[in-house]
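FIELD: query
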Amino acid sequence: MNQVARRIGRTLALVLPVVLVLSGTLAVTAVPWASSAGAGVLTASAERAAPGGPPRARHEVLRERLVDELRREDPGAALTSLQAEIDRDPSLAGHCAALARALGRAAVEKYGSARRAHEFSRPVCDTSFAAGIAGSR
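FIELD: result
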């Protein structure tokens, strides 16, 4: 009897932690952690190119949105939005240089002049923005 109780105890000692971890993980994934996202926030569903298409990286989606904003408004507005996105999600900071270069190229496309594009420079990845302008000549 003592041996049977010991065997049951060992089995529970091995199985119970696994069950608790799995159930905790499932519980965490089922909780809606955030309320409905605002229009300016990029969501996982926005990262798909087309239904059934391959997933796109968040920074690629952001680049397209910022270039569209630059075309509608001006480079200053797009650079301000870039800074706001980096403040909201610091993991995007590693992509700041590439995003700012793309905005620099788009600014030269819009205005046709590097001098005019430089007028909108902001302190967010400013060297990369300038490199994008210079690379467009």
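FIELD: remark
Confidence is low (pLDDT under 50) at residues 34-49.
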